[in-house]
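Posting this for the archive.
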Amino acid sequence: KPNSALRKVARVRLTTGIEVTAYIPGIGHNLQEHSVVLVRGGRVKDLPGVRYHIVRGTLDTLGVEDRKQGRSKYG
């Protein structure tokens, strides 16, 4: 019953050549297969093995549309 959300993640290849799974925060996103993203640390408690977050509003990732509060965290 808890944790039933469809959380959005992406498989990301870092510049070091390692492939990791990163969480996409916020409602909706514009990421496609060969998008370039900035990754920061920080795990997602609900998702085992997801230890990184994608930074919104940088490189190919747009900020969250119509967001009024906490805008700095979502680009």
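The chain has no helices and four strands. The first strand starts at residue 9 and ends at 13.
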